[in-house]
Amino acid sequence: MMQSIAWRQPSRAARIVGLVFAALIVFAPLAACSDEGKLTLRTATGDHAFNVQVVDTPESRAKGLMFVQDLANDAGMLFDFKEEREVGFWMQNTFIPLDMIFVGTDGVVKTVHANARPHDTTSIPSEVPVQFVLEIPGGQAASIGLEPGDTMVHDRVRKTK
Fold it and tell me: 102-111 b/e with 16+ CB inside 10 Å = b?
């Protein structure tokens, strides 16, 4: 005996929830690294361009690159604290290794923390007051020869005389 199964059209609300969920899956990685700004790191090996998303509110800085599964080699996130101060980061809910580049108001790289480990809740301090923290894929800082004293060029960096 064959049993018939009745298929019911999902409600409008269920379809909307499904579309929103699908959009989050597709666009969340893009949103985490949208092309909101061009940034250049100047090192002894030359100028290296990155596409960065700038985060400058407590809420956006708290989320950072959490839950991002992939990050292009020329992508990153620039945290702007709007004034120099000592800051600390951790890698809770972060799925990819990151290089953290701590930068002063003048754009000078102060310290570099290479290959922060995913999901590690150990604090990673700036060690000195900084205004910016740039997160790029783990290993990229070494790959471009980035060292303290190098410079970051971005529209948010104050021009000094």
Answer: bbbbebebbb
Band of pLDDT at residue 13, cut at 50, 70 and 90: low
Report which DSSP code applies to 108.
B
Report the candidate in 134, 113, 130 with the shortest Cα–Cα distance to residue 51: 134
Distance CA 157, CA 92 (A): 28
Burial of 95 (0-12, 13-18, 19+ CB in 10 A): middle
| Strands 46-55, 75-85: pairing kind | parallel
Farthest-apart Cα atoms in the chain, separation: 87
pTM over 0.85: no
Gyration radius (Cα) of the chain, Å: 20
The H-or-E segment that residue 19 falls in is helix 12-32
